[in-house]
From TrEMBL, chain A:
The chain crosses the membrane at residues 20-45, 124-143. This is HEAT repeat domain-containing protein. Keywords: Membrane, Transmembrane, Transmembrane helix.
UniProtKB/TrEMBL annotation, chain B:
The keyword Transmembrane applies. This is Glycosyltransferase family 2 protein. Gene3D superfamilies: Spore Coat Polysaccharide Biosynthesis Protein SpsA, Chain A. InterPro entries: Nucleotide-diphossugar_trans (IPR029044). Keywords: Glycosyltransferase, Membrane, Transferase, Transmembrane, Transmembrane helix. It holds the Pfam family Glyco_tranf_2_3. It comes from the Bacteria. Belongs to the glycosyltransferase 2 family.
């Protein structure tokens, strides 16, 4: 000990005699050498971890792949007792978290194999998940304190196509972390059988963005296959988030909720937000609600470019003579070539009358207009 | 003289220390940014795009081609195979003198189509637009134009023809990952603020196995120069750009691969055909446009490797590449000097431009002077060997420690190389980069600066392609054309 003290005091006193620059450099060199060393160890450690996992996966795959594949894609429904017998010798092999993760990956690969056209036997599949404790393992992580673990486990359970219980996600749906909170809300909507639409009351999320639109659209599309969707207009009325309202209005058009059309027309009068206005116009077009045609024509005449573009889309859905006349007139009025192209395409949507209208227009048009008509005709 | 010697030694020392501090700070931010991005999205989002194509925003992939007959067919086939439901491929034949266009016409059954061409951004005249008569290739559009001499000019023609709101700027010698489009568009959708550009990691294709136009096995290059460049690219993307992205200060969306908001590119005037660094020039002008119009914006960088490119196989090609980059960098400061230290341009004026000026533009000059200076000191016997080795190891360790950090970041994202030996190969090359590679890049960059001032005329595309296929492309058609 005294030697150590002696030498350390010697080095410290020696070091302190050097100029500041040298001291600083020596410290920086030591820091970088430590980074070098730590990074090297880390690199080896990560590689070892990946290697060990891949070995574990290989082992699990060798042991269980064909057995599980035959069961989850087989026609015969087996009982829990049958499963206990089949996997009697294998259960002890899938005890560690690493093995459970490996088996999860194998199952996901089976489920999402690109060229598979096999039908999943859900009863057997659930029994496989239960017997190896896969669901319990991931559900435990859903309620862990680590946000990354929660996010990963939620995604895995979703990928495994298993319902998540509302209570296990509950902790995450009001999280501060945006990604986790939104993921939890989307997952909750997908699997909650009591009140799946509850987050639509809160405009899904206060930071509602385009990716959330996709999440909600996915949920609504899946839900619409199971049951009739509720009237989405109610969330347009209750929300103050313009982006969310514009999105829900688009969805009204997409899911063809004709009953909401008169209410959408009413909204046209008071709505100030341009994005929402555009959505209303496009939704009315999608719903083919021709009663709103006159109103849309008057809006078109005084509207901004985005409003005009939405109205053009709506007119091409209406396919009425009145709409066609408006489009024809606008074609010659506008000086915007992009708009001309859009109008020409919209006119072409009118079928035979559109085609003859384009023919008529091409007789009194410039070379550029002729190119537009040729382009549109070529696409027919 | 002794006063000057002391001053210069101190200046160099603090310059190196500033680089060290900046790089390690960037590395820390890059690491957390990588972790944040790594788990953000999974294949679920990609599956939603495929299941509900109406949710996938349209993306145009624009790739200019000038005398690319060796690789053009493989390249287009790869692009057509991208796994995304809503995209188009726009190949701009920039007046190729070889059989690039004819190969395209014959292989993809193209014919001239009527097209109301609108020149929203300037470029040399477009002769015709070609589309395929075969519905299998309906996503392909070929723009045949008069040669404009630069990639920027060809890109502008592609932007004029592109029909979607976002476009990818890439080269035909690049191989994209099949999931590129979904990976690059997801962060755009997941942002509250308008995203005007997104970059991703690029690596060398030289050592990789390629099957049906896609990378089937990722390996580091077998040739010497591309191996050095692999680590250099990873450092640039995973440390520098990922770090800068944390501050919304990405200086440059790479010209090899990047996603752009078309409306902003058009509003900013398109790519500058006179620029030798059209990618950085475009990025800066887009930022300037957003700031001039008080529009909030974001430029993102994602850590995933989405693009592989053919690296310079020898010194001759490396010299061409680096000389062009050098010219481009110098040009940036002549054209955009008004942004420098300009309060109006926020981070661009106070972070991006000063950093680029002091640590990128001036670095080769300072390094060269430093080398000559050291030689002079050795000759005059003014070197203090007690501290010389310490200083030398300090400078050497900056590069090596950043390189090893980069390699650990890379394996953290995803282990792309199959063997650990391949990572060790990168490490080995990084440890000798300072002696066998870096001096060449410094020399070529300085030559670029010199060429910029001597105002020689320059053309783009002088990259000798080796091609990705192991077999010759569509042999019968080549013979017919020949």
């Amino acid at each position: 000990m005294s030697y150590l003290q002696y030498y350390s005091s010697y080095f410290i006193s020696e070091f302190s005699t050097y100029p500041f620059i040298i001291q600083l450099t020596a410290l920086l060199v030591l820091t970088m050498l430590s980074i070098l060393l730590i990074s090297m160890v880390r690199l080896i450690f990560i590689n070892r971890k990946i290697f060990k996992f891949s070995k574990a996966k290989q082992k699990v795959s060798k042991l269980l792949y064909s057995k599980i594949e035959n069961l989850i894609f087989g026609d015969e429904n087996l009982t829990a007792e049958n499963f206990n017998l089949i996997f009697a010798g294998d259960l002890n092999e899938i005890k560690t978290p690493q093995r459970k993760k490996a088996l999860t990956e194998i199952l996901l690969e089976m489920l999402y194999a690109k060229k598979t056209n096999k039908v999943l036997n859900t009863d057997n599949y659930l029994l496989v998940l239960n017997i190896f404790g896969i669901i319990a393992f991931w559900e435990k992580l859903v309620v862990s304190n680590n946000a990354t673990n929660r996010k990963t486990s939620m995604r895995i359970l979703d990928d495994l196509q298993i319902g998540l219980s509302g209570s296990s996600i509950q902790r995450s749906v009001y999280q501060k972390n945006d990604d986790l909170r939104k993921l939890a809300r989307a997952t909750s909507m997908e699997y909650d059988s009591n009140d799946p639409f509850k987050f639509l009351e809160d405009s899904f999320d206060s930071n509602f963005n385009s990716l959330d639109e996709i999440r909600v659209h996915y949920f609504l599309s899946n839900k619409s296959k199971e049951e009739k969707l509720p009237q989405l207009i109610r969330w347009v009325k209750s929300s103050t988030n313009a982006k969310f309202r514009a999105f829900i209005i688009k969805e009204i058009g997409y899911f063809n909720q004709m009953e909401s059309a008169p209410l959408l027309v009413e909204l046209l009068d008071d709505e100030k937000n341009q994005k929402v206005l555009c959505s209303i116009i496009e939704a009315l077009g999608k719903l083919n609600y021709t009663q709103a045609e006159e109103k849309l024509i008057s809006l078109y005449e005084v509207g901004s470019k985005p409003i005009q573009r939405s109205a053009i889309k709506a007119f091409s859905e209406f396919k009425t003579i009145n709409s066609l006349n408006v489009l024809e007139k606008s074609y010659f009025k506008t000086h915007d070539n992009d708009m001309k192209l859009l109008l020409a395409y919209a006119i072409s949507e009118f079928g035979i009358s559109g085609k003859s209208s384009l023919k008529k227009l091409s007789k009194t048009s410039t070379d550029f207009d002729k190119k537009i008509f040729d382009q549109v005709n070529y696409q027919f | 003289m002794s006063y000057f010697v002391t001053f210069y030694q101190y200046a160099i020392y603090f310059y190196a220390t500033a680089i060290t501090i900046i790089y390690f700070t960037l590395a820390i931010f890059a690491y957390f940014n990588i972790l944040k991005n790594k788990l953000k999205y999974t294949e679920k989002e990609e599956r939603i795009f495929l299941k509900y194509p109406e949710t996938a925003p349209g993306i145009s992939v624009v790739a200019p081609a000038f005398n690319e007959e060796v690789i053009i067919i493989d390249s287009v086939n790869t692009l057509l195979g991208l796994n995304y439901p809503n995209f188009e491929i726009v190949i701009v034949n920039d007046g190729s003198k070889d059989s690039t266009l004819q190969l395209l016409i014959d292989n993809f059954q193209l014919e001239e189509v009527p097209f109301a061409y609108m020149e929203k951004v300037p470029c040399k005249p477009v002769k015709r637009i070609l589309k395929s008569t075969n519905s299998e290739f309906s996503k392909l559009t070929v723009v045949d134009k008069i040669n404009g001499g630069t990639k920027a000019d060809a890109m502008n023609a592609g932007v004029n023809v592109a029909k979607f709101d976002y476009f990818i700027n890439t080269d035909v010698d690049c191989i994209l990952s099949p999931d590129t489009l979904s990976k690059i568009i997801l962060p755009v959708l997941d942002s509250d603020i308008q995203v005007i550009g997104v970059g991703a990691t690029m690596r060398m294709a030289n050592g990789c196995d390629i099957d049906h136009g896609f990378i089937s096995r990722v390996s580091p290059p077998k040739q010497i120069i591309p191996t050095f460049q692999e680590t250099e690219y990873l450092r640039s993307y995973l440390v520098a750009k990922m770090g800068w992205a944390s501050f919304n200060a990405v200086p440059n969306i790479s010209g090899g691969f990047g996603l752009f908001d078309k409306s902003v590119v058009i509003a900013a005037g398109g790519f500058d055909s006179l620029s030798h660094a059209e990618d950085m020039d475009m990025t800066l002008r887009m930022i300037a446009y957003m700031r001039d119009n008080d529009k909030p914006y974001r430029i993102l960088q994602i850590p995933h490797t989405l693009c592989w490119t053919e690296g310079p196989p020898n010194l001759k090609v490396l010299s061409r590449q680096r000389t062009r980059w050098g010219r481009g960098l110098m040009q940036i400061f002549f054209v955009h000097h008004k942004f420098l230290f300009n309060k109006k341009y926020g981070r661009m004026g106070w972070v991006i431009m000063p950093y680029t000026l002091f640590f990128e533009l001036l670095a080769p000059i300072i390094e060269t002077i430093g080398t000559f200076f050291t030689i002079y000191l050795l000759w005059s016997g003014e070197i203090n060997f007690n501290t010389f080795w310490l200083m030398l190891s300090y400078v050497y360790l900056i590069g090596v420690s950043i390189s090893i950090l980069t390699i650990t970041f890379d394996i953290t994202i995803k282990k792309l190389y199959r063997n650990f030996r391949e990572y060790l190969r990168l490490l080995l090359f990084s440890s000798v980069e300072a002696f066998f590679y870096h001096p060449f890049t410094v020399f070529f960059t300085l030559r670029g600066y010199f060429q910029f001032f001597t105002r020689k005329e320059f053309k783009w595309g002088a990259m000798t392609r080796q091609g990705f296929s192991k077999k010759p492309q569509s042999g019968i058609i080549v013979e017919k054309v020949a």
